[in-house]
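Anyone up for a design puzzle?
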């Protein structure tokens, strides 16, 4: 991961210099993507399919055997005026005329008249309303706008033909979903985010950059999602979630980079140097944060629900695009801004007041070498007593200084209090009910919502969500009587209000029984009825030899809610386990990842609890513009869990990395918490406020499927950022003190490392001109200590390029360890070391690529192995154990091979070959090293001082 910082630095430098090209490329990408989306995209499709569920399998079978049920449907309800009767001749005649007109509308395959038969369940019990069911021949996505408009038009015509005071509405499944758009509340949230950025940066130019990059990223990702509607079934939730996430993370990712750049420029660093460094440092954290969010969103596929998987992919695309735009377009915009990214007092020719300069530098004063990853408490000591004392005296002040000191003043009290409050907030989550969105959650006044409310008023809440029982009756000689017998038994089941339809199909092989529940479609009563009917499956099979399935949109909602509810635990374990591993890699600590994971659990629990209070119990539903209460969208919990996980890890990394950095520099737990908090709290606060603002904008929008998701994310972000990360985490770290940074040596060896703050780049910059500018050393080291070799410490070496290094003395294992360390294959844990001009262990991967190692002992043909290694053109060629070549002829052959490789190296590869050999006695090397080249002998001295095995820079990448 340390090479990532270098790659990001190069990317930032290129984007800064090629600013016009970068802007033109992104403008061109947007133009092409929007053009393709307009030409290819077919629009979103709010059709939910859940393969593998009983209801979906039954619906699929019904579509084949009972084509009348394969298309979508609509409903027309006509309500008589007060005191009127829908069975009056004039009323009935007007309704029948409307039915005749509706039958002539294209794509309408059938219309049921409530007046057919002696008694009809489609006439209200008090004769106050009639219900007309309209069956269409195609699915909802294929219904032409003209068909939908024609149905509404016939409803309006009927309204005019009925007596004054009558009411007509056309709704049903066809009108149960609306395509949400971007409204005033979302635009207002963007303006609020801009104000927050202006306050944070103190510069309108700097504040506009995160907004610009976020909009570009959102535009690109949404265009791709809309294009994909040509081939995939994508619900309207997917692009809306992409917009919401893209705006939130897009602003934050660019904010982190611009903030780091602005701090560096304030300290006098030229913008051309600062922008690439900001991309390399803050950009590394952006990549880490984006990766965690993307992994969590891709993890939505564990539910095995196609539309949810596609939704997760769409959101992951938005996050990935936001990160890419932040890493490329942001440095280009910074190039255009130049020194205008900071207020005038920080620009050349304007000297900032001394106090301001001191304050601006304080948060960034953490560029020390970091050399602790295991027993950090044992070795994270001040580099000098005076330095530590000065650091201890430099306690941060201001708002954030008081905040963190208040949080860690009595750590046990803070931890217990926050845990208790969040646990209390999470308690209502046990009442969280899941359901698919239906017409009852539409905004008031929408045709589907008006129809839904009128049906519930006059026919009962269950009439809006009928269940369908279907099964094969092909074995029956009298399918009509058989279906009637089953319907009669179903009508007596507790929770059944009516059985208005029971019939076999035209071929007499499939039965359909429509059941009207007593409760609303999303009620617990209806859910219990679904289970009760399914529990009767074996009885129906035994008594009637009919394999009945319970299906319909309502049953489908029950199935999907149960599947998603069952997926929450494995998904939660996945993200919590992932957080433990990722944070252990980053912070080399046990306390930090456990605290982060448990804090995430508290945040998500509190978010679910508050969501339940609003959307199930109705608390503050009015002010928040919540149209319907009682349940939340089935996929809300798993989406909120995935997104909040990534954001929580984001805040954890930005806050705790500075605390750890300061601790490793000064070795003082509490002051490190204070200074680290002060260094990052301003940016994290701005990021949290922006996230909260953007998500809140989608609450007031009133779109039913997105409201609970947006509310859960808004409350979750606020709780996680300001309560868990900025208050609970410092308190826990202060409570554990030095033990917070303990890490088992075994895990330290096994787990790879992430450089999320560009520490490696800082180390490279520190040693850029060491030992002197333009030096010609192939290997130069000072005070080097090799990992897991307690006697290999304080190694000083300088080997000019093209010469030889002889490692002698010590043990064979120690000599091999030195060669492996100098070729990037064994980490160093102390000191300074550069090989072929690259800093180790920061650039270990690159050093390995430019070097080769041959071990004489285990090799069956060491001479051939050296020939092969030399042929690859390395800059460093190490041969371990040359004294194992007891045969003089073999030594002469090795001498010939090394001499030829050294002579032709610069001609073939453009750089000289530096040879490293190890042997017990230095004189042994004379027989194998080319004549005439200089040689340096390194004999590691035994030392009682143990090597520092817990260095953060001691890693092989």
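Challenge accepted. My sequence:
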């Amino acid at each position: 991961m340390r090479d990532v910082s270098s790659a990001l630095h190069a990317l930032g430098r290129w984007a800064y210099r090629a600013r016009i090209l970068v802007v033109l490329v992104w403008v061109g990408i947007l133009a092409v993507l929007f053009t393709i989306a307009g030409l290819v995209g077919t629009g979103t499709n709010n059709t939910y399919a859940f393969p593998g569920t009983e209801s979906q399998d039954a619906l699929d079978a019904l579509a084949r055997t009972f084509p009348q049920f394969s298309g979508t449907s609509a409903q027309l309800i006509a309500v008589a005026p007060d005191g009127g009767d829908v069975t009056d001749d004039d009323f009935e005649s007007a309704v029948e005329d409307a039915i005749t007109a509706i039958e002539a509308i294209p794509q309408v395959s059938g219309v049921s008249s409530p007046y057919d038969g002696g008694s009809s369940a489609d006439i209200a019990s008090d004769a106050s309303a009639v219900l007309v069911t309209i069956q269409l021949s195609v699915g909802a996505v294929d219904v032409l706008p003209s068909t939908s408009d024609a149905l509404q038009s016939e409803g309006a015509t009927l309204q005019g033909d009925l007596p004054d005071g009558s009411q007509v509405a056309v709704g049903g499944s066809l009108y149960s979903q609306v395509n949400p758009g971007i409204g005033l509340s979302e635009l207002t949230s963007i303006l609020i985010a801009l104000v927050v950025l202006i306050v944070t940066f103190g510069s309108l130019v700097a504040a506009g950059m995160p907004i610009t990059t976020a909009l570009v990223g959102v535009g690109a990702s949404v265009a791709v999602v809309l294009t994909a509607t040509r081939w995939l079934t994508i619900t309207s939730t997917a692009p809306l979630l992409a917009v919401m996430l893209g705006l939130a993370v897009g602003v934050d990712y660019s904010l982190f980079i611009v903030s780091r750049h602005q701090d560096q420029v304030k300290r006098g660093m030229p913008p051309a140097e600062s922008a690439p460094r900001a991309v390399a440092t803050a950009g590394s954290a952006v990549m880490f944060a984006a990766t965690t969010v993307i992994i969590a969103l891709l993890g939505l596929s564990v539910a095995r629900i196609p539309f949810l998987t596609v939704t997760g992919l769409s959101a992951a695309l938005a996050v990935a695009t936001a990160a890419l735009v932040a890493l490329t377009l942001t440095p280009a915009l910074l190039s255009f801004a130049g020194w205008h990214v900071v207020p005038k007092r920080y620009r050349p020719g304007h000297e900032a007041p001394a106090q301001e300069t001191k304050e601006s530098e304080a948060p960034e004063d953490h560029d020390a070498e970091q050399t602790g990853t295991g027993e950090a408490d044992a070795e994270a000591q001040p580099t000098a007593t005076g330095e530590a004392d000065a650091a201890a005296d430099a306690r941060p002040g201001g708002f954030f200084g008081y905040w963190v000191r208040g949080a860690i003043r009595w750590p046990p009290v803070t931890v217990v209090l926050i845990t208790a409050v969040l646990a209390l907030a999470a308690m209502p989550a046990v009442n969280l009910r899941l359901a698919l969105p239906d017409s009852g959650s539409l905004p008031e006044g929408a045709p589907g919502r008006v129809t839904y409310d009128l049906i519930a008023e006059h026919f009962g809440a269950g009439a809006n969500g009928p269940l369908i029982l279907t099964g094969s009756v092909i074995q029956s000689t009298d399918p009509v009587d058989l279906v009637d017998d089953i319907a009669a038994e179903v009508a007596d089941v507790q929770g059944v209000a009516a059985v208005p339809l029971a019939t076999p199909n035209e071929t007499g092989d499939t039965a359909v029984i429509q059941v009207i529940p007593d409760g609303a479609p999303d009620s617990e009563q209806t859910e219990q009825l679904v289970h009760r009917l399914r529990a009767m499956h074996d009885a129906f099979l035994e008594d009637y030899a009919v394999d009945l399935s319970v299906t319909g949109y309502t049953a489908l909602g029950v199935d999907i809610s149960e599947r998603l509810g069952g997926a929450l635990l494995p998904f939660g374990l996945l993200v919590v386990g992932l957080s433990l591993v990722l944070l252990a890699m980053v912070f080399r600590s046990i306390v930090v990842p456990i605290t982060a994971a448990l804090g995430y659990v508290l945040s998500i629990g509190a978010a679910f609890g508050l969501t339940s209070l609003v959307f199930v119990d109705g608390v503050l539903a009015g002010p928040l513009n919540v149209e319907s209460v009682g349940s939340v969208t089935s996929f809300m919990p798993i989406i909120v869990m995935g997104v909040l996980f990534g954001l929580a890890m984001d805040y954890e990394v930005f806050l705790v990395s500075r605390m750890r950095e300061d601790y490793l520099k000064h070795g003082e737990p509490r002051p490190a918490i204070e200074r680290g908090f002060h260094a990052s709290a301003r940016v994290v606060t701005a990021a949290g406020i922006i996230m909260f603002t953007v998500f809140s904008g989608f609450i007031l929008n009133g779109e039913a499927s997105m409201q609970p998701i947006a509310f859960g994310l808004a409350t979750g972000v606020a709780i996680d950022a300001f309560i868990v990360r900025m208050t609970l985490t410092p308190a826990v770290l202060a409570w554990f003190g030095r033990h917070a940074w303990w890490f088992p040596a075994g895990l330290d060896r096994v787990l790879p490392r992430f450089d999320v703050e560009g520490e490696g780049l800082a180390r490279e910059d520190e040693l850029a001109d060491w030992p002197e500018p333009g030096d010609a050393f192939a290997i130069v080291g000072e005070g080097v200590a090799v990992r897991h070799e307690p006697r290999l410490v304080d190694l000083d070496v300088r080997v000019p390029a093209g010469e030889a290094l002889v490692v002698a003395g010590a043990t064979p294992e120690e000599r091999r360890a030195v060669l492996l360390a100098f070729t990037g294959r064994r980490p160093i844990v102390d000191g300074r070391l550069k090989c072929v001009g690259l800093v180790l262990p920061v650039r270990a991967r690159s050093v390995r690529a430019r070097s080769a190692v041959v071990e004489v002992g285990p090799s069956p043909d060491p001479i051939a192995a050296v020939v092969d290694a030399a042929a690859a053109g390395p800059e460093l060629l190490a041969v371990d154990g040359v004294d194992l070549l007891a045969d003089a002829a073999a030594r002469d052959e090795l001498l010939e091979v090394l001499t030829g490789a050294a002579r032709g190296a610069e001609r073939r590869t453009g750089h000289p070959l530096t040879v490293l050999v190890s042997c017990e006695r230095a004189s042994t090397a004379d027989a194998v090293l080319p004549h005439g080249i200089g040689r340096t002998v390194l004999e590691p001295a035994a030392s009682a001082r143990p090597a520092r095995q817990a260095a953060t820079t001691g890693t092989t990448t």
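A detail worth pointing out: Residues 353-393, 942-957 have pLDDT under 50 and may be disordered.
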